[in-house]
Amino acid sequence: MDRPAPAAPVPSSVPSLAITILCWLWSLAVMVAYLRQHPLTFPELAWWPADWTRVMACLPGPAFLALATMAGLGLLLLLGARLSSAACLLGSLPLGLVLASLLALGVGLTVGVTRTGAATWIGLLVLPALAGIPSAPALVARMTRHPLWRHPLVGAALLLLAMIGGTTALGLLAPVTSYDDQVYHLTIPRRYVQAGTIVPLPELPPSHRPQGLHVVYAMLMAGGAGEQAIRTFSWAFGLITALSLLGALGRRWGAWPGVVAALAFYTHPQVAWLSTTAYVDLPIAWLLVTGLLLAIEAWFDAQRAAWVGLMATAAFLPAVKLSGVVLSFFLAMAGWVVWTRPRIFRSFSELRHSHQASGVPVPWPGVVAFLGAMLLVAGPWYFINWLRTGNPIYPHLGFLFSTAGCEPPTVSAFQAEFGGVFPYYYDPDILLHRFGMGRDVWALLWLPWNVTIHGHIHDQATSLMHFDGQISFLPLAFLPHLFRDFFRCAWPARGVYLLASFLFVLWGAGSHQIRFLLPTLAVVALTAGLWARRLAKERLPMGFSLLVAGLVATSFAAERSARVAPLVGGQQDHASFLSQALPFYPAYQFINQSPTLQGKVLPLFEERVYYLEKPFQWMELVPYPFLSACLAANHPKQVSNYLHRLGIDTLYISKFAFRSLPDFFDHPGYRETLRRFFAEEVEQVYEDAKGTVFRWRPPDQPLPGSP
């Protein structure tokens, strides 16, 4: 195998030394500014759980990932891959998840999302796993015998990774409180389980997005796994990404590149937060990094495992998230460059010397294989979306497709009651555009600094005024060094630098949510590892920076885990923890336990519906259908009729939203209809300090103040 030697350090010179000193002074300034706002704190944590059933509830997640890895390894070996290949280790889990997703979709639509369906699904996964399990010990032994893992620097890095990952894992022992998990990441799989099959969910617009990973969650839930097991996926993917960078780059170029890349990714506080959720951002970052690492493996050794694994990652990205379509394109380009490298670089040489380039032939076998894999893995979700809505990428690019046949029930019921369209419509993208620090050119230029120094994770005091998360100071500190290395490295590595730059600009021009930046940060970590091949005299300050970043990441993880320490230690029970973390939880519990509330529940100004066990009607964070009904109604009875058409018999609203509701529009008719609706049409059946529950007044009940 063509094993490259570590890149030789550039010879020292006075200009080079001056630039290096300036770069490290800049790095030190960044570090000082970062630590001034984020001092190191390590609160006391409950490391020994009082209730070990919480730990047991997490285990099905890692057990399934191990099964998927064995299934992927078995498929690779059946396809003729070499067991000695490092690509076997990288490509096994992506290929196993592709198989699990396809089988979950097929079984869910036929046998059903039931216990029988889950047992069938697991049985089908076990069959290829039987081919991989006997060879797994030999593969792991061969990989771990590499001298890299005996290097003291690697041992120190593994200790830091264990500190961050172990401290973060405490958050998995608590019930879910993250926002989007309650909106759809966990709610959609649970709805599939409740329906017993993969059904359209028009009341949940996010269900129109690709569900390649959520259908796996649904089958696990049908088999008895809880939400804690599902959330271990993100925790595992974050750690696997760091270990993949460490192992793949370390085996190729030595300990420093692997350690720098691994810690440059895993020390982001945003990684620690997402590791305790079911969000798909960490799986997306893992798939992108794994695909690039497999392309590197294929560059040096055109082996079957690398190509199959690269196709699996490129095909699974669009099945997990819509933005994966763009990322899969870059992996396909990486595969094309690797496939044609002898001819493409000869053409560049001819262009440089004779200004005439012979055409680079298109690798049609590879193109057909990539397109076939994407159509097989991701295509079903876009085809299903097209059948349901008329737009394969709904709700985006609606002006290109006719979506008249996919009206949600809130629209059809409004037309039936009022004979028109909503007088008020709230675009949820408005909310997303408020993230960040402005959309002018100056703010865009200062994004690297602002996103590092001024990030807040859903800070109540500065909600949406700053970025919604925090990244490590390392990317900003690395920028001068990466800029220098860009002009010194070869073109294949330079392409990775350009990819990181393009992804950052793309993110900067959109919604400034830090979790959307994770794929970019993962590629930046890879570029940092490529730069570290040249580290010589910079190793001492680099090591210090990595140590500080590791301690800061552990501090952030500890601060977040401290929120669940009373629950883990047994000082707080499940219900009181959720009541403290989620203001609507006591009201939801009343609704769930009330035998008189039989219809749908409408949570007003609240999207988080995971803890509602009864049917619900989802109306976005700003419930514009309800507000439109209050605007259009001539009598409060019309508002009641509209909600009855939707099957709603219960309303929940927070105290803050209820106080603010009359001032939402400066319209006297709206305010009078709203006042009379709550006074005449509904009655209060529950109230606490945070919210109120209403139900419709029985017909024979007199109105307040009547004789």
TrEMBL record:
<feature type="transmembrane region" description="Helical">
    <location>
        <begin position="54"/>
        <end position="79"/>
    </location>
</feature>
<keyword id="KW-1133">Transmembrane helix</keyword>
<keyword id="KW-0472">Membrane</keyword>
<feature type="transmembrane region" description="Helical">
    <location>
        <begin position="307"/>
        <end position="339"/>
    </location>
</feature>
<protein>
    <submittedName>
        <fullName>Uncharacterized protein</fullName>
    </submittedName>
</protein>
<feature type="transmembrane region" description="Helical">
    <location>
        <begin position="229"/>
        <end position="249"/>
    </location>
</feature>
<feature type="transmembrane region" description="Helical">
    <location>
        <begin position="540"/>
        <end position="558"/>
    </location>
</feature>
<feature type="transmembrane region" description="Helical">
    <location>
        <begin position="491"/>
        <end position="510"/>
    </location>
</feature>
<feature type="transmembrane region" description="Helical">
    <location>
        <begin position="153"/>
        <end position="174"/>
    </location>
</feature>
<feature type="transmembrane region" description="Helical">
    <location>
        <begin position="12"/>
        <end position="34"/>
    </location>
</feature>
<feature type="transmembrane region" description="Helical">
    <location>
        <begin position="282"/>
        <end position="300"/>
    </location>
</feature>
<feature type="transmembrane region" description="Helical">
    <location>
        <begin position="86"/>
        <end position="109"/>
    </location>
</feature>
<feature type="transmembrane region" description="Helical">
    <location>
        <begin position="121"/>
        <end position="141"/>
    </location>
</feature>
<feature type="transmembrane region" description="Helical">
    <location>
        <begin position="516"/>
        <end position="533"/>
    </location>
</feature>
<feature type="transmembrane region" description="Helical">
    <location>
        <begin position="256"/>
        <end position="276"/>
    </location>
</feature>
<feature type="transmembrane region" description="Helical">
    <location>
        <begin position="362"/>
        <end position="384"/>
    </location>
</feature>
<keyword id="KW-0812">Transmembrane</keyword>
